[in-house]
Amino acid sequence: MNEKKVLRVGILGFGTVGQGTWKHLVENEKAWERILGVQLIPTRASVRSLSKKRAFAIDPTCITTDSLSIVEDPDIDIVCELIGGIEEAKKLTLRAFSMGKSVITANKALICDHGDELFKAAETAGVRYAFEASVAGGIPIIKVLRESLVANEFPLIYGIMNGTSNYILTRMENEGATFDDVLGDARELGYVEADEALDLDGVDAAHKAVILGYLAHGMWIDLKDTTVEGIRRISNEDLAAARDLNCKIKLIGVIRRSFEQNYVSVGVYPALVPINEIIAQTDGVFNGISLTGTVVGTVVLTGRGAGQDPTAGSVISDIVDVVKGMQGSALPPKLLHVTPDECKPAPSQEISGCFYLRLSVDDRPGKLAKVAENLAVHGISLATVSQTPDEKSESASIILTTHQTNEHSIGLAIDSLEQLDGVKEKPVLFRMFDPNCYKEE
Ligand code: HSE
Q1: Average pLDDT, integer, range 102-110
Q2: Which of 14, 83, 228, 319 sits CB 3.0–4.6 Å from 206 for a disulfide?
């Protein structure tokens, strides 16, 4: 058990979250001492550039460009890895473990790519690898899933896991603004990741969904085995059509588990979510995650999924847990690991649902019939159809919804529709999210 009266925190990466963590550690130092019986002192931070102006200034002697020197500093007891990226972050994390130091991280990409190795390394070293801030910023989803709801299995977890894309969709929906205009504003507000594809193409949300899938089911789903689609093809016309169907289009991560067949599926995609779902009403930069457990029923958490203060709050919650662990308090339950016999990634034939399609076609007789025929060949039946002609371009926009089918059949149908004479571009396809989809058939 650790008897120290002072514990020093090293922060790797002094960006938005790193500065927030330092600030809150200092501002509430009395509270940490009262709760933990030790002083928690942010002591050193690493940056890429010493000359860069930072909103939150600290004593320059605490700052270095050498992250490794912080990890290896014998005075530093706890390391926060907030630099992001993969290779350097992984090396620093493993080095900290080998020195007997617990690491707190917000790095979802690293966990998604190397979580198995890192969790095993932490366990072998007898330290903690804590990652509350990696999913949904300030929402305490990791602790809820791993500890509070431990009595449950989870047939369905779904929700909004990327604040930037939700901000863009909400403004398009509420103001009729175009994707490009709102993206410009999101950039100015500093919401969009430096690598924009992470937010706009669903990759950031997919990292988070994979982590939740692992926590719930003990299985790392490879991103290559998942559907990952972003928001770039959503038009104002789609948002209006969704409204007519009593839905809103949201970028959602969906983790489904079939206990009958022992399949897990993870996907991130734009979906039409029924308007009465809390997730459909979760707007702006907020995130929302709905967990359906076998014991509790459905629990929904919404809140700030990004930003300095909420995310720093999650980092500090992990620091507090790490300190309690060092003082001898019980650790959270061990992470699950299942074997391939126990659970497998679901094949696309086994992932079923209804779909929304928008096609731009030449406005000539028989085109709609051809589209319907093509879908029927793949065993797909239509639920609704609407067509809007555009006289200027002599084309028509056809919006269809399907009855229940599966991912495999719709994939084949889309490929063949794209080849159909008179279809002008690859059809737009969104899933129609059914909150009752977890019920075994
Ligand atoms: N780019 C992420 C988002 C930040 O917009 O949600 C938080 O992970």
Answers
A1: 97
A2: 228
